[in-house]
Amino acid sequence: MSTKNKILDAAESLFADKGFNGTSLREITSLAEVNLAAVNYHFGSKKELIKAVMSRYMNELSPNLQASLLVICQQENKPTLNEVFSAFIDPLLSLNVFRENGTSNFLQLLGRGYTDSQGFLRWFLTTQYPEVITNFVTAVQRAYPELSAEDIFWRLHFTMGTVIFTMSSSDALMDIAKSDFEQQVDIADVIRKVIPFVASGVGAPLR
Amino acid sequence: MSTKNKILDAAESLFADKGFNGTSLREITSLAEVNLAAVNYHFGSKKELIKAVMSRYMNELSPNLQASLLVICQQENKPTLNEVFSAFIDPLLSLNVFRENGTSNFLQLLGRGYTDSQGFLRWFLTTQYPEVITNFVTAVQRAYPELSAEDIFWRLHFTMGTVIFTMSSSDALMDIAKSDFEQQVDIADVIRKVIPFVASGVGAPLR
DNA sequence: CGTTATTTTAAACGCTTGTTTAAACTGTCT
DNA sequence: AGACAGTTTAAACAAGCGTTTAAAATAACG
């Protein structure tokens, strides 16, 4: 495995665990078993490393998600919100074959990016991958045409909040669920639990 | 105003803005216009300062929230989930008279605490203020008795995610809403928008 | 007033951070 | 072999961090 990939892998899991600000380059390079200076040699700076970690996931996820949403948008009969949100399941879970713990790592990284570093990652995603959001909005509009653009805006952000926050702390939550309810839960289960929640939320009656 | 309170006020708004890890004692003391060493003199350490900032809010909010939930739990007819969640509105908004921008500051702090510093604030809240959670769960159970304890657990965490995440980025979201929809939105509006969302989410049909 | 306590202050502490430097090493091609 | 690009390395850099120190300033009290 190349130095570059060793760094990316180590950075990814540490970032997901402890956030971007909370992870030092020295932790990354020592987990990756490479020299400290290798990060700046291969990526230029810590910020560029963060972008590289996120891009690796977005480039894998984005086309799958696009295809999945396209099916929803082009099907003949009006989709339900449950169907729209279920379109995320397979693309997200397929990140697990792309990389070990890919799904939860990616969602945790997303969560970190929204709270760490004062929204620079939000800028990065919305400018670098705007079509994902566009298609998603279109799909929701087809499912619930009475929703105004403004309400869609707010409810989609509520949805992102639910998903991202849940996934940021999914490890802790799964541990609690395991000890309190003696039931094994994995990331796929959590996704299946959260979808009816957000679908109902977005579909809430107006006024 | 006492040095101690100057520090608390400055720390509060900086913590809300940039997170606990992202705010240095030097930023706090320079905004508060006090000496750097004053923090360690009055609070002992940065961690204790964080606790003090949160306690100031929890001690204000907790009794109001308890009273509000008690009304719901003791009323004769079964409450709706919308009523249960609406019980949060007044106690949360009353933080605004307690302190300028109190509502959004507090909710942002909550969000920070869940993602920064690997869950030490979660421990702090659940051990120091467990009765708030207990009463809330009871209220939800009255409104939707068919929900299993496990489903309540998950859906309440989804709810916390929605609210906390939304409030963590509420400033940015309100800015976007303002420029995209030319509509003034304040924190009370956001709360009124989020309640139907989470009420519907928690009330989602089973299976 | 003088004598304690309490609070504030400037300076320094040791440590970690991201980044840079310049030398050493590796493999490739003529 | 020699030369050259690419890569790795140890060491140092300046800057920022939370915390501690000891002296100066202020307040409280008999």
Topology:
Two copies of one chain form a homodimer.
Chain A: H1 3-18, H2 25-32, H3 37-43, H4 46-74, H5 81-86, H6 89-93, H7 95-98, H8 102-115, H9 120-128, H10 130-143, H11 149-168, H12 170-181, H13 187-202
Helix pairs in contact in A: 1-2, 1-4, 1-8, 4-10, 8-11, 11-13
Chain A binds a DNA duplex (30 and 30 nucleotides) through helix 3.
Describe, in plain words, how this protein is organized in 3D.
- The structure is a homodimer of 207-residue chains.
- By secondary structure, the first copy, chain A, is mainly α.
- Chain A has one domain (54-202): Tetracycline Repressor, domain 2 (Orthogonal Bundle), CATH 1.10.357.
- Chain A is 77% helix and 0% strand.
- The first copy, chain A, has 13 helices and no strands.
- Chain A has helices spanning 3-18, 25-32, 37-43, 46-74, 81-86, 89-93, 95-98, 102-115, 120-128, 130-143, 149-168, 170-181, 187-202.
- In chain A, helix 1 (3-18) packs across helix 2 (25-32), helix 1 (3-18) crosses helix 4 and helix 11 packs antiparallel against helix 13.
- The radius of gyration of chain A is 18 Å and the shape is globular.
- The termini of chain A are far apart.
- The model of chain A has no long low-confidence stretch (mean pLDDT 90).
- Chains A and B meet through helix 8, helix 11, helix 12 and helix 13 of A and helix 8, helix 11, helix 12 and helix 13 of B.
- The first copy, chain A, binds a DNA duplex (30 and 30 nucleotides) through helix 3.
